[in-house]
Design goal:
Blueprint (H helix, E strand, L loop, with lengths): L13 H8 L5 H6 L4 E3 L3 E6 L2 E6 L4 E6 L7 E2 L5 H16 L5
Antiparallel strand pairs: 1-2, 2-3, 3-4, 4-5
Amino acid sequence: MNNLEELAQYNIDRDVFVKLFNKHGHLSELMWDFLPDHTTYNYKIFRIEDEFYILHLPSGTMINWYKHEGRTNTCNKNLTLDEYEEFFRMFYNELAGIEEK
């Protein structure tokens, strides 16, 4: 394993990605208010041309996709589906200003 290899595309199935991405609200609409570059307390979101990135600052976990939700999605870690859901839930809540309990 070379840590500098390109990340595998479609780390998870695109339909699953989109479902998890939007489970707690329509995240892509909310994100547009913060692009092309924005940093919250725990996240950095940015766009480079047609690629979108979400970086969870405390863990260093980064999820990326090309143009449309889930398309050629990558992640720099092998997350479980539950971890993807938790990642997107926390991200949505932070962007929406929803306090974590």
